[in-house]
Design brief:
The structure is a single chain. By secondary structure, the chain is of the alpha/beta class. The protein has a single domain, classed as Ribonuclease Z/Hydroxyacylglutathione hydrolase-like (Metallo-beta-lactamase, Chain A, 4-Layer Sandwich). It is globular, with a radius of gyration of 17 Å. It starts with a strand and ends in an 8-residue tail after the last strand.
Length: 260
């Protein structure tokens, strides 16, 4: 099944909530429309638009079932159907890890005001929580108000800092730039390595053009620095990558060919 991968004894199940769409040169304002057409035509549709996936991933590690990010949510989102179709039972999920608090990663947190994963704790980095819940940022942000802050009132929220051990095989890693407290997830199991990227990158094009930052980045000066450091690490390790906005199932590896 192409939606399932293993890193050592850790199982990864790709989940897709839907797809977006837009002009790539508008999404990545420092990029070039000509370069998109000449070098990345396979990523474009007939109108020259890109359609990034809204992806999540479920992991099984040391007896725990974990979901990373909950998508853009209903009514358009299809995450609930994906969970059912791929054998991920919501009531068996013990942890939900949110890489950051952008709407397309959190709007599946709650259903009718109750946790979509009724037996789970929700993990958020303290740095991201502090940024998004500051009054001047929170004001007018309906996604955070409706899908993040209620987690605290429902007593299902845990704020984490630094490199937090989720299991003996999974550790969070601060990867700031896209948001101030953005986190990724490092997988090390039986001598193999993997990495849940979150929004460190949004397109395969950024493997070559690491300075291309989407307009959604809150700290666009920091995100390329983070991206280069993480990509260098993942290339050197040969790690399996799970990336929510990448095509197909979001799995891949960074390799160098022809100097690129």
């Amino acid at each position: 099944m192409d939606y399932r991968r293993w890193v050592g004894s850790v199982e990864l199940v790709s989940l897709t909530d839907g797809q977006g769409g837009g002009d790539p040169a508008a999404i990545f304002p420092t990029s070039s429309a000509d370069v998109w057409r000449e070098e990345f035509s396979e990523l474009l549709d007939g109108d020259g638009l890109v359609h990034p996936r809204y992806g999540s991933v479920a992991l099984r590690s040391e007896g725990k079932l974990i979901v990373v990010d909950t998508g853009a949510g209903p009514p358009e989102g299809r995450l609930l159907g994906e969970l059912d179709a791929k054998g991920v039972k919501r009531d068996e999920v013990g942890l939900v890890i949110l890489t950051h608090l952008h709407g397309d990663h959190i709007v599946g947190n709650l259903i009718d005001g109750r946790p979509a994963f009724p037996n789970a704790r929700y993990l958020v980095s303290r740095a991201d929580w502090d940024y998004w819940t500051a009054p001047d940022v929170l004001d007018g942000n309906s996604a955070v108000q409706e899908q993040a802050t209620p987690l605290e009132d429902l007593n299902v929220l845990d704020l984490i800092e630094g490199e937090f051990a989720v299991t003996g095989e999974l550790t969070t890693l601060p990867t700031p730039g896209h948001t101030p407290g953005h986190i990724s997830l490092v997988i090390q199991s039986e001598g193999e390595r993997g990495f849940v990227l979150g929004d460190v990158a949004h397109s395969p094009a950024q493997a070559e053009y690491t300075d291309w930052s989407p307009r959604f980045d809150i700290n666009p000066e920091t995100s390329p620095v983070t991206r280069r450091a993480i990509f260098d690490r993942l290339e050197a390790e040969g790690a399996l990558i799970s990336a929510g906005h990448m095509p197909e199932q979001g799995f891949g590896r960074l390799v160098r060919e022809g100097g690129r």
